[in-house]
Amino acid sequence: MYNLMSNPEVINGSDPLIGSPQWYEFLEMPSTKSFRYESGSGTFTARKRPNGTWNAYRKLFGKLRQEYLGLSKSLSPERLEEIAARLAQSDMEYWTTKAEAKRERVIHNLSITGSENLSGYTQCITQAKKPKLVPISKGSPSQELQDALKKISDLEAALKESQNQLAEMEKIVEAAREVVTSMVPSKTNMIKGDSLVKLKKEIETFINDS
């Protein structure tokens, strides 16, 4: 007979007592509230609910997983191994399977109501597309990353273009400065012709390049 103390009893999956009359007697004892199951398939903590049924729990990848075990009489070695393996699945596989099982339960519950008003809902759920899993291999960037890299490349190109335009503007400003400095007090007070030609050429070049 197992000795249940304050902490959950640790049950090894290879224990020959699992499935024996002593095992089910242990599960039915009022003092048996929980136990920890460990085997090569996985581990979990089983807890008895007030209604006498058992649930299995395991925290993996930061999330708590829960599976229904059943009544004490259902906790056979095969059932314990099945749940241990299910709770040990990869994160993607476990939650996808969980969602699919929930979808099937909804369809089943709707189908046994016998109500014609629910037929439309049943059809919608049945025809709902299953989630498509697209694995991303290591080393290959996702589409989101590719889009982000392209935006960065576009911004760099726009920045380079702005820098080129700024350089052209600086040339125009320099040419205008030369025109201003070329203005000297004289009887005619006219701007030198060669400076005006240079300024005009710089402006036309900037406009054509833009």
* Secondary-structure element series: EHEEEEHHHHH
Task: Specify the helix fraction band.
Answer: 40-55%
Question: Which structural category fits the helices and strands?
Answer: alpha+beta
Compute the gyration radius: what is it? 39 Å
**How many beta-strand segments?**
5
Question: What's a quick, concise take on this entry?
Answer:
With 210 residues, the chain is an alpha+beta fold. It has helices spanning 21-28, 77-87, 91-111, 119-127, 143-182, 193-209; strands at 9-12, 34-39, 42-48, 53-60, 63-71.
Describe the model:
There is one protein chain. The chain has 210 residues and is of the alpha+beta class. It has 3 domains: 88 residues, no CATH class; 43 residues; 67 residues. The chain has 6 helices and 5 strands; from the N terminus they run βαββββααααα. It has a 5-stranded mixed sheet, with helices on one face. α3 packs antiparallel against α4 and α5 packs antiparallel against α6. The longest helix is centred in the C-terminal third of the chain and has 40 residues. It is rod-shaped, with a radius of gyration of 39 Å. The N terminus is likely disordered.
